[in-house]
């Protein structure tokens, strides 16, 4: 039986390498990106390495609820099943921007968009079980501070260092989402994984000021992983038949092993509150 995977943020970086690796493993791969030009180039690169693979491209801005809904409809129309969903897309914006729906754009792209897309594809993933959902998060979540559930998506001025704080908040939201999703999918055959791929040389911080991009981290460039190296852990969680598919948060080490999550991620009331607030913000019915 042909296996099908959808990878967001697949036009470049980790997402493209994940798509490439899954295609080499024989998956039919849906590559999701914002730019048709970059998406077409990425798809061509993957086809060059896996000429027999079936590759499709999908386009949509994850910061827009309408575009995410349209994206999900196209995926559901195209695929009769879905074995793997990799929520990889993310941004780290230098300045605060407002999404078309009035939310902080970084929060909308990194959390609300993946939350909505997963919710819309949930029934197909359950129908296709055993299946897997992989959320690409970050150890940066530990710097998020206290989360205001009622206001986490509100736009505002970032200020000095504020972009890093908001990015960390989006990564905490990723983990709270993944943990709660795992609980809600228990017994369905859908495994949920979240991981930190480690420091990776990608275009994620292209919008950041030069000092932020070329400071201590890039001064240690040899320590940065390539997108191909970072993709290995994602692919293992997504597709390795010998890997324990029990839910977990995995660090940026090889081989992956379970990390002790922070008290915030282990707080069931916080997870539930974030889930319910996210449902309200994206317009999903409670489930």
From TrEMBL:
Keywords assigned: Oxidoreductase
Matching Pfam families: adh_short
Keyword Chaperone part of the UniProt annotation: no
Entries under InterPro entries matching the protein: NAD(P)-bd_dom_sf (IPR036291), SDR_fam (IPR002347)
SUPFAM superfamilies: NAD(P)-binding Rossmann-fold domains (SSF51735)
Keyword Cytoplasm: no
Signal sequence coordinates: none
Annotated GO MF terms: oxidoreductase activity
PANTHER family for this protein: PHOSPHATIDYLINOSITOL-GLYCAN BIOSYNTHESIS CLASS F PROTEIN, PHOSPHATIDYLINOSITOL-GLYCAN BIOSYNTHESIS CLASS F PROTEIN-RELATED
This protein's name: SDR family NAD(P)-dependent oxidoreductase
């Amino acid at each position: 039986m042909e296996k099908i995977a959808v990878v967001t943020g697949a036009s470049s970086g980790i997402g493209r390498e994940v798509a490439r690796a899954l295609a080499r493993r024989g998956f039919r791969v849906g590559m999701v990106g914002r730019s048709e030009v970059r998406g077409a180039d990425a798809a061509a690169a993957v086809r060059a390495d896996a000429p027999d693979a079936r590759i499709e491209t999908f386009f949509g801005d994850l910061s827009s609820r309408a575009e995410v809904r349209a994206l999900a409809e196209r995926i559901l129309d195209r695929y009769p099943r879905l074995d793997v969903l990799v929520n990889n897309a993310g941004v780290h914006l230098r300045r605060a921007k407002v999404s078309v729906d009035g939310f902080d754009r970084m929060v909308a792209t990194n959390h609300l968009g993946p939350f909505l897309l997963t919710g819309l594809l949930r029934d197909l993933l359950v129908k296709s079980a055993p299946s897997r959902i992989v959320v690409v998060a970050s150890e940066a979540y530990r710097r998020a501070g206290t989360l205001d559930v009622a206001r986490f998506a509100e736009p505002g001025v970032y200020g000095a260092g504020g972009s890093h704080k908001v990015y960390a908040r989006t990564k905490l939201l990723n983990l709270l989402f993944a943990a709660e999703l795992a609980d809600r999918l228990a017994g369905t055959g859908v495994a949920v994984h979240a991981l930190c791929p480690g420091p990776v040389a990608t275009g994620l911080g292209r919008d950041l000021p030069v000092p932020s991009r070329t400071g201590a981290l890039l001064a240690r460039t040899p320590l940065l992983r390539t997108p191909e190296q970072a993709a290995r852990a994602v692919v293992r969680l997504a597709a390795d038949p010998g890997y324990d598919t029990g839910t977990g948060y995995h660090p940026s080490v090889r081989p992956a092993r379970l990390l002790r999550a922070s008290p915030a991620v282990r707080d069931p009331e916080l997870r539930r509150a974030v889930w319910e607030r996210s449902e309200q913000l994206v317009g999903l019915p409670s489930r």
